[in-house]
C-alpha cells in the first residue's frame, strides 16, 4: 500500500539565482505482517498521509540533487525508521522545467516547461536485500522524415501493407534502464548522456542520417549504443509506440502530392518493445 501522486515544487536558492525541481512521487510499502488485511489490526500501519508528509520533509531537509538520490533517500528513511517495513519502492518523475535564456544569457529565476521527454526513476529495497535503482525517460517524441523503410516482411492473403523504401519514422519512446551496484554515481550526468545516446542512435550522423529498415532495428540500435557508451547501465528496456503518416491523395483537387502533405493515422498504432542486457 502507499501514497500516489505526491506533487510538489522544491525551490533552491544560491544568491540571486534560483533553481526548481517539480516532481511527482509514489511511495509504496510492504509490511512484515498482513494483519491489517487479515484481521483488521492497524497497529503496524503507517498512514498514507504520514508517508506523504515524510516525502515532503525529506525534500525540505535533503533537497533533490537528483531524482535517483531522492528515491534512495525515501527508501533509506523507511527502512531505517520503521522496523515493520519489509519492502519499500519509490517512484519519482520530474516536470520538464528548463531555465529561460535571453540572447544566450541564462535567466536567474524564470523557466519554461519543455515537453521533450519526462525523466523518471525508481528505487526499491527489501529488508536485508540490495538497493535496486532504475531510471528512464518517457513521452519522448522523435521523428525523421526519411532514411526509413519497411520491406521484405512476411506476406499472406491478409497482407495489404505495401513495401516502402522511403517513409517517415515517428514515434513516442519509453526507455527504462537498471544500474548495477550503485556506487558514487553522478545520476544527472549519466541520464543526460543516455538521452544524448538515444537521440544520436535514432537520428544518425547530422549530414546523412542512418537508414532504419524497421522500428524494431531502430530500438535495438538505441539499446546497443547505450550499452556500449554507458558502462553503468546493466539492462535497458525500450518501448516504441509508432505514429504512421499517410500521403493525402490530391488528384481530385488537380494537384500532385509528392509526400508533401500527410496526415497522421491516430489509431490503431503499432508498437514494438525489447529488453536488452549484458551477459
List keywords for this structure.
279 residues, alpha+beta, Urate Oxidase, 2 domains
Provide a descriptive summary of the structure in words.
It is an enzyme of class 1 (oxidoreductase). It is found in: Peroxisome. Pathway: Purine metabolism; urate degradation; (S)-allantoin from urate: step 1/3. Its EC number is 1.7.3.3. InterPro entries: Uricase (IPR002042). 24% of the residues lie in helices and 40% in strands. By secondary structure, it is an alpha+beta fold. The chain has two domains: 2-129, Urate Oxidase; 138-277, Urate Oxidase (Roll). Strands 1-2-3-6-7-8-9-12 form an eight-stranded antiparallel β-sheet, with helices on one face. A hairpin with a 2-residue loop joins strand 4 (97-102) and strand 5 (105-113). It is globular.
Major sheet: size, sense and barrel closure?
8 strands, antiparallel
Query: Looking at CATH, which topology of the largest domain would you report?
Result: Urate Oxidase
Number of strands: 12
Radius of gyration: 23 Å
Strand order of the largest sheet: 1-2-3-6-7-8-9-12
Distance between the termini: 35 Å
How many structurally independent domains? Answer: 2
Integer average pLDDT: 95
Our count of helices gives: 5
Contiguous low-pLDDT stretches (5 residues minimum) are none
CATH architecture of the largest domain: Roll
Assigned CATH class of the largest domain:
Alpha Beta
Give the helix/strand class: alpha+beta
Order of SSEs: EEHHHEEEEEEHHEEEE
Report the principal-axis shape: globular
Annotated CATH homologous superfamily of the largest domain? Urate Oxidase
Portion of residues in helices? 10-25%
Proportion of residues in extended strands: 35-45%
